[in-house]
Amino acid sequence: MTAFLESGSVPTVGSQFMKWIRISEPIGRGFNLKRKIYHMAGLLVPVMLYGDVFRFLADDPFITRKVLIGLLIAANIALIVMETLRMKHRGFRDLFYRLFGSLMKESERDRIHGTVAYMISNLVLVLFFSDEVVVLSLTFLVLADPLAAFVGIYYGRLRFWNGKSVEGMLAFVAGSFLSGIVFYLIQDALNRGNLPFVLESGSIGVALAILGFAAVVAALAEFFSFTALNGVVDDNLIVPLAAAAAFVIAALSLGFLPATVFFDLNWML
């Protein structure tokens, strides 16, 4: 999920300053709406986790997380097998492109599809982090990324050396922050206890400060994201894990207990 812009070279204007930031007209094309709608399905795991949708299966407070971990492991294995077939078997590759080609970036035709990296990030987050961190970290990517891409493509004029725009980056921060506020409101409406990351002696300002910090870190992670291991590592993995790390660093630095941000693994013992 590339957040801001995928573009080639842009005309430069002016001075030495323009060596790393340039002014250009917005591209105005290249926003793949089908792909972005497909990305919205990435909200499925955090919604299922937060909604505890599998609680009917057993009298076990961790049943939903256990089921999701099993499903995510199975999904990762299935995706890796599918991607291996796509790379090695021409007939399967042709069928795959007919069915899903419109959802792919051109660069993904020669490497592993970004869905694999996203599913790996889901598995890591569900294994090790609290419900709130999982929801917020994945929401940052799923919702802020399309917003940043749209703004960068249609309104981005100040563009960095890598083609990503200042406007897109700011849109990513704003989208992440606003999605976090919506989550806080949902948390309060569902009477799920105190807002995440608020000390008993603290205030809503503490929660907003942590949220803002994590949103900025996630945007920087998107800006400097890269692709490695033939696509196993890309922004779909880097951004959610960077956001989770930001929540951990901020919360622990302010004196929160580890249980605020980490999931207790004792149930596995």
What is this structure's SSE topology?
Blueprint: E1 21-23, H1 33-39, H2 44-51, H3 63-88, H4 90-100, H5 114-128, H6 131-155, E2 158-160, H7 166-189, H8 204-223, H9 235-253
Antiparallel strand pairs: 1-2
Q: Can you describe this structure?
A:
There is one protein chain. Helices cover 58% and strands 2% of the residues. The chain has one domain (28-268). The chain starts with 20 loop residues before the first strand and ends in a 16-residue tail after the last helix. Helix 2 packs antiparallel against helix 6 (131-155), helix 6 (131-155) packs across helix 9 and helix 7 (166-189) runs antiparallel to helix 8. A two-stranded antiparallel ribbon has the order 1-2. The chain has 269 residues and is mainly α. It has 9 helices and 2 strands, in the order E-H-H-H-H-H-H-E-H-H-H. The chain is globular. Residues 1-14 have low confidence and may be disordered. It has helices spanning 33-39, 44-51, 63-88, 90-100, 114-128, 131-155, 166-189, 204-223, 235-253; strands at residues 21-23, 158-160.
